[in-house]
Amino acid sequence: MELGIFPWQVLSPLRLLGPLSDRELRIASRRLRSYALRSGYILLLCILMLSAWYRIVGLPDSTLAAFGVSRASVVSQHVASQVLMFQFAAAQFIAAVMLSSSFGDELRRGTFSVLMTTPITSTHIVLGKLMGGLVQAVLLLAISLPVLAVLRIFGGVTWDSVLAGFCITLTAAGFMGVLSLLLSTYYRHPFAAVSAGALVYLILFAGLPFAVACWIVIGGVNQPAALLHLLLLVAWLTCFVIGAGLYFSSRFTRTTSAVVASFALVVGLWIVGPTLAGLIGVTGGKTNVLALYRWIHPMTQVQLILAGATGTPNAGMPWRSLTYGTRVLSPSGGQAMSVVSVTGALAGIATAYILAGLLFLRGAQRCLRRRIFG
Q1: What phi and psi, each to the nearest 5 degrees, are found at residue 26?
Q2: 171-219 pLDDT, tens per residue?
Q3: Residue 116 needs a FRET pair 20 to 30 A away by CA distance; which of 1, 18, 352, 373 works?
Q4: In the Cβ-directed half-sphere of 52, how many Cα atoms lie within 13 Å?
Q5: Domain layout of the chain by residue ranges
Q6: pTM beyond 0.85, yes or no
Q7: d(CA 331, CA 77)
Q8: What angle do CA 2, 126, 120 make, to 5 degrees?
Q9: Where are the alpha helices (DSSP H) in 7-68?
Q10: Is residue 55 a contact partner of residue 278, using CB atoms and an 8 Å limit?
Q11: Is residue 343 helix, strand or coil?
């Protein structure tokens, strides 16, 4: 043991993880985007909590008793579930963004070769990069803990569920961080690493479960209608997301800023937008606002397609005889729509999104020309 080093200093976490982890933590605490990220997280968390609260308290069959003790536990459970789901998705995204440029930035700056000449081991390099990126996700999870602790006072939320949600979210963020760190060794650009990580997630947690559910549980799919509607959904979603990603990547010099801007567009359009539409519908009594806004949401379209074109009874019906329930668009339900009406509505929405994606591509082309030719 070296002179002047005490036993507790030898067992220090920073010493065990190596000096690179200390450097990454110091740099992460000085970046302006870290504070902007936390502020945005708190803002989205407040909007989500208000939306979840109004969704229970503002129902038509609710009265002033919703503010009483009998309804407090119901509101607490609903708000806590929304907070847990939000932090589950946000922590993974933050881990992906922070770690997608770990080795790419070192390679582009030419500092990785210098780093390899130091006595730092490969294990310390990997652990240092991993801890430097995951610390932001852990801090965001720590921000949500006081909110869940306050909700526990109203009943319906136990410490077991809070700790279980925290551990599951931390594990998922760690998996996404390790995956992004691995992909950053193959892709130098963070946007490519994040896109590859999203593709892996879609295959593991969306494609495979959907295929198994269709094969075992659903019992069949009405091929003509379902395939046409899913083709429209995939077409406009791909065109819009790729167009927006290319525009922001040409608009910002830092790829991480482009990824954050793309994510902010998706969150604002498909999370904050429906939340504000729901608040307007509840407070102003205009439920048609939320119903119209849900049409442009991809998850609503997926639910509508699965409800009308899948299942054992629907799989054997002629595609022209299919009817689609509108309960997914409005909680009060409504008249069923024919397959022609649904196809026309989905085609119109797909056309609007594809035009928006093409406008993003046009904007990206102009930004590239301006950057090259001045």
Answers
A1: -65, -40
A2: 988 898 888 888 888 877 777 777 788 778 777 876 676 666 655 544 4
A3: 1
A4: 21
A5: 13-218, 221-374
A6: no
A7: 20
A8: 35
A9: 7-10, 13-17, 19-30, 32-57
A10: yes
A11: helix
